[in-house]
Amino acid sequence: MITMKDIVREGHPSLRVKAKDVNLPLSAEDIKIGNDMLTFLKNSQDEEIAEKYELRAGIGIAAPQIAVEKRIIALHLLDDRERLISHVLYNPKIVSHSVEDACLAGGEGCLSVDRDVPGYVVRHMRVTVSAFDINSKPVKLRFKGYPAMCVQHEIDHINGIMFYDHINDKDPYELKDTVTVID
Ligand SMILES: O=C(O)C[C@@H](Cc1ccccc1)[C@H](O)SCc1ccccc1
Ligand code: NI
C-alpha cells in the first residue's frame, strides 16, 4: 500500500518532468499503479486508516508523486451535490475548457509540498477531459468547480507543474474580474 514515505516532495526530479504516456492496452503493472493510487486516496480519507498509517488526506494524486513518471492520475472526492467522483485516468488530456476561470478561496495544497504557499491558483472553471479508464476504454469526462480544480492540479503534476507555479509572486491574491472564487 502507498503511504506518505512513498510520496516524493518538492525538489524531487519526478515532479518536474513531463511524464510519459502509458501504453495501451494497459499492462498489469500500470493497472496496479492506478489501483494503488486510488486506494491511497480512499485510505487517506478514512479516519482510522489515515491515523494508523499517518496519511495526509488527499482527493487526488498523480503517478509522478510516487516517482512513477507516467501519465496516470487518480481522483476520489465528492462534488458539490455530494456525488462521488472516483476515477483512475490514464493519459488524461484536457480537450476543452470554459472561458470562465476559477480558484479555490483557500488556495491549494499538495501532498508533495510540506509548507503553506498562500495565494490564488487560477484555473478553468470547467474542463472536458479525454482519457483511458482502468479497462483501457476511452472515456470523456466533464468536471466543474472543485472537481475541475482537482483534475487540473493532477494533470499539472504529469506535466511537471506545481500549483504554486500559477501564483502571482507580486500579488498572490490578484483576481481578475473573470475569475470565480470557489468556497
Ligand atoms: O498533491 C496532490 O496532488 C493532491 C492535492 C489535490 C488538490 C489540491 C488542491 C486542490 C484540489 C486538489 C491535495 O493535496 S489533496 C489535499 C486536499 C484534501 C482535501 C481538500 C483539498 C485538498
Ligand atoms: Ni499536488
UniProtKB/TrEMBL annotation:
Catalytic activity: N-terminal N-formyl-L-methionyl-[peptide] + H2O = N-terminal L-methionyl-[peptide] + formate
Keywords for this protein: Hydrolase, Iron, Metal-binding, Protein biosynthesis
Pfam families: Pep_deformylase (PF01327)
Enzyme Commission number(s) from the entry: 3.5.1.88
Active site: E154
Recorded superkingdom: Bacteria
Cofactor: binding details: Binds 1 Fe(2+) ion.
Enzyme class: hydrolase
Obligatory cofactor(s): Fe(2+)
PANTHER family per the UniProt record, alphabetical: PEPTIDE DEFORMYLASE, PEPTIDE DEFORMYLASE 2
Family designation: Belongs to the polypeptide deformylase family.
Protein name stated in the entry: Peptide deformylase
Gene that encodes the chain: defB
